[in-house]
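Methods — Computational structure assignment.
A single polypeptide chain was analysed. Its primary sequence is given first, followed by the predicted tertiary structure written as structure tokens.
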Amino acid sequence: MKVLVVGANGQIGKHLVQFIQDHDGLQAKAMIRKQEQASYFEDLGAEVALVDLEDDIETIQKAANDVDAVVFTAGSGPHTGKDKTIMIDLDGAVKTIEATKAAGVKRFVMISSFDTSREAIQEAPESFSPYVAAKHYADVWLRDSGLDYTIIHPGRLTNDEGTGKVSLAEQTKPDQVAREDIARVILSSLVHDSTIGQEFQVVQGDQEVDQAIQSLN
């Protein structure tokens, strides 16, 4: 299975590409914006596609034409304005979904926000509500896309070393989780078809990632 990792140069994306490359039967294609980012992924043996999420659907589709699954890990980041939140977290996600469909790819994994409900938008601080709203509508678009989707809602992300253990359910208590462990959850979701059509929250915990994923059955 070849997997297009959108946002590969992000912190989750880098972990994910490494895990995919280390997994028998999987091959990563890293979608990045800048040529100077390429060597990291090429050194891992991954393919590279130079695409900006603000490009058009057809350009993104070219990166997806030869893959079996797409993972959207991209984000505008905490230091950008509302404009980039709309262009990357909402429009970039929607364009990637449409590009995936146009490429004839069925499998799509979305990294969302912990709670993207309508209530979460209303209750979020003013500085955070545009991000939650963008993720809310991107999730809605994906659910209605006809793709074989999985939506992962991580808790507060940290750069701590991953433990390989999580707590995972349709709804969990808010908590933190290592980005490295979210990458492990993505990998497990890709290899377990039981996650198709499911979405769940993930925080730190004491259950091995594969066991947690299989408990969703």
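Note: The chain is about 40% helix and 25% strand.
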